[in-house]
Amino acid sequence: MPEQRTVDLLIHSGIVVVVDPQRTMIEDGAIAIDQGKIVEVGATGLLKERYRGKKEIDATHKIVMPGLVNLHFHADNFSRGVGEHLGLEEWIDTIYYPMLAAMTPDDAYKTAMLAYSEVIKGGTTTVNDMYIKLPSLADAAEKIGIRAVLSSEGADLIEGQETLEDNEKAFLERNNTANGRIKVVFGVEWVPVCSAQYIRKCRYLADKYGVGVHVHLNESKGEVQLCREKYGKPPVEFVYDLGLLGPDVVAAHCVWLSDPEIELIAKTGTHISHNPVSNAKLGNGIARTIDYLQAGINIGLGTDDAPCNNNNDMFEVMKYASLFQKAIHTDASLLPSWQILEMATINGARALGLEKEIGSLEPGKKADVILVDTWTPALTPVFLGKNSNVLAHLVYVAHGDNVDTTIVDGKILMEGRKLLTADENQIIEDATRAANKVIQVRKIR
Length: 445
Prior knowledge:
This protein has helices at residues 44-50, 88-102, 105-121, 134-144, 164-174, 196-209, 221-231, 235-241, 259-268, 276-281, 289-294, 306-309, 314-329, 337-343, 346-351, 390-397, 424-441, and strands at residues 5-17, 25-34, 37-43, 51-58, 62-66, 68-73, 124-131, 147-152, 182-184, 186-188, 213-217, 249-253, 271-274, 299-301, 369-373, 403-408, 411-415, 418-419. It is of the alpha/beta class.
């Protein structure tokens, strides 16, 4: 018998969902992890012969899968549930933008810690986070251990928003920090509050530094109308003419795309973050997801932020991304579980240019892994083989609360539902105090 190799972590005896091109599922599977990367994935018996873990996790009754990639996210919890009755345009004008203008770097750090702790506990390992005070967000991401792609919620036609200079400064200071776990790209907050000059400069800076762009596009009918009145064309056509779109761009929402705009997104290789729960909550409609897929567009999934969604649960997003399309097309075959799971993992990684690093449990990739506990009535029974319901359980039944363990870069951030990298009670206390201060400063309530 060959000598066992010692690795940092050996996860064994679980149902392993690899999310590779073959859609491999291993009934009694194991993963060997060393120095932050996946060494091997295979049957438990085989890997236990080959490896000994400095730490071992028994994943019996658990599904082992890639960490979820939240492709459109704002580290904002401070106005969760405030302005419940408002649509998008009124909400951002009366609540969201005033709160952003009132926040200090310390406030941003505290809301980020709250947001990142929430998503880690829900199985998200990567966030594409468009917000403010990026150095504060980077501090929080470095502390708590999440993988974060950060961009400024910047604009130049509204008071109090951050600038491209703020975004560039954060890039120069924090891009590729925390052993590459934190990256910085450039952000366009909302096209109606950004000038043509701002958008051109955003593209210039992204090209200069070789990084991507995160932008809201065609989220609501109101946004499309505003752009037609202001610029003479809808948002996607406007930013296309300015050279913004491309394979390094994540366009969030894209609910109201015309046929010509779908063609522009597809032609430029722009990726879409589909955020169905937020779109429904704000009364913005249901995106033409099937048409986008048929056009060859890569689609990932996002929660948006807690005030637009009320939570940051990517499992809930997966469920509604599928159900809404089945309902409006009256076709139960659309967006099956495997396709939705790919949207929430490898498609999101692809959109961020991280497909070779994360998004699946393949050897050589970074060990971003979650364990979902099925030992609960709602996730029982579990069938494998011909009648497998494992993926259906993940997409249609599971919630973030079913995640037992979250691992990023091979480091365990949560185990047994306990956050290990920060004091959860302190995070909640600090964020609650800061949120009350901010909301009172702007006289929002």
